[in-house]
């Protein structure tokens, strides 16, 4: 039988606020363990939480950016469970009255055309507090608990089960992450765990409309893990079904070293969290005015930017998708194009050379030494014939490493293209004289030898000869005589 995958994703994004969601403690990452704590986030008795308004506002922002309806009335609820990193014995989350519902994220196919788009529906977005962290490493006996993260604000974004492959899941996560970063709702830094994902995966026979039993792979903070875990899970479930077995609903974890998921705990169907409305927090009322204000402050979002890039710059959809994947990259591109308005050429350099160099150095576009105006200046130098395309690659590498302007590099290293016909002519005469056998061969019909002659001239000039001129002159001299 042929099966298809059905995937629904739950993303936890840390909201970019100075302080925690219900107290004034700092929400910054990486501090001395248990230095960002107070009676409220420690869960001491007799204290009252106070909601951080910024979290609500950023939640509204994300809701609008993902086309959700913002609930006029929402409410926190207690999700009760025991775990050492949860001092209160419950997590303050939202249950039946979430902040936002019924949105979607538009995703783009990852192939070279980038033309395929699909809308993945969002079930809901809700606010909640993060738990602390159990620390096992470097401790001789037992574990310790660090509660700096307890009470840090999160937004949970739940998708409908509409994703049908690992590739699509990654495309969705990338699109959602871009929205979070564009809107300033979260830095979505995956290494810090500020953007993590639970993948619910089931399979069903192709053509069936019923959902299969799912497994939930918890807490992945890398696109690669998500992709691999989903692929693994699809095969694992298919094998079970093919052998006549039954997939059990359970929570699993991805082990990247072993390249497999393993069972963490089985999950009963029934709600075992005993949710009830949080009695210490008043319900949240959001009026149209507030929503309108937040909407008016939203920047241009990736979806809109992508469409504008295709229309205004006549770029292929694929280029537009990549260039708008981050605001900083899009800004870099646009600034370069404002100086050197041949958009496709700029796009090729940004997507190819620039992104490759950055990846090699493990850098983000924000940290790049090369600035958009300098890239534009380099492209001008190629365009007006000052340097050859080949030399430009060398200059570019140096620009990336040093942040110097292309003009300075070209001058310092004497890389200006040789276009003087007299000078080139004399050089070509020498090359022809030095290679009589090849000349004879060429004239006897082995025209492929042209490449050999061009190569010789380039070698003599250290790659600086103007290739167009060299070709013309060589042809004249070889064919003419
Ligand atoms: P829970 O809170 O127990 O994780 P939910 O009903 O809220 O359960 O579902 C969470 C996620 O699981 C959603 O993203 C949803 O789309 C997805 N999901 C639910 N059923 C399935 C299924 N049969 N196959 C794949 N994903 C599913
Ligand atoms: Mg879940
Ligand atoms: Zn606190």
Features:
alpha+beta; 40% helix; 20% strand; binds adenosine-5'-diphosphate
What does this structure look like?
The protein has helices spanning 53-65, 166-183, 223-242, 288-297, 302-313, 317-323, 327-339, 343-360, 372-383, 389-402, 406-412, 421-434, 436-443, 450-460, 467-480, and strands at residues 3-14, 69-70, 73-74, 76-80, 90-94, 100-108, 117-129, 133-135, 144-146, 153-159, 195-205, 215-220, 250-255, 260-266, 276-277, 284-285. It has 481 residues and is of the alpha+beta class. The protein has 3 domains: 3-293, no CATH class; 300-413, no CATH class; 421-480, Arc Repressor Mutant, subunit A. Strands 2-6-7-10-1-11-12-13-14 form a 9-stranded mixed β-sheet. A 3-stranded antiparallel β-sheet has the order 5-4-15, with no helix packed on it. Strand 12, helix 3 (223-242) and strand 13 form a beta-alpha-beta unit. It is elongated and about 95 Å long. The termini are far apart. Adenosine-5'-diphosphate binds next to strand 1, strand 10 and strand 11. The site of zinc ion (ZN) has 8 residues, from loops.
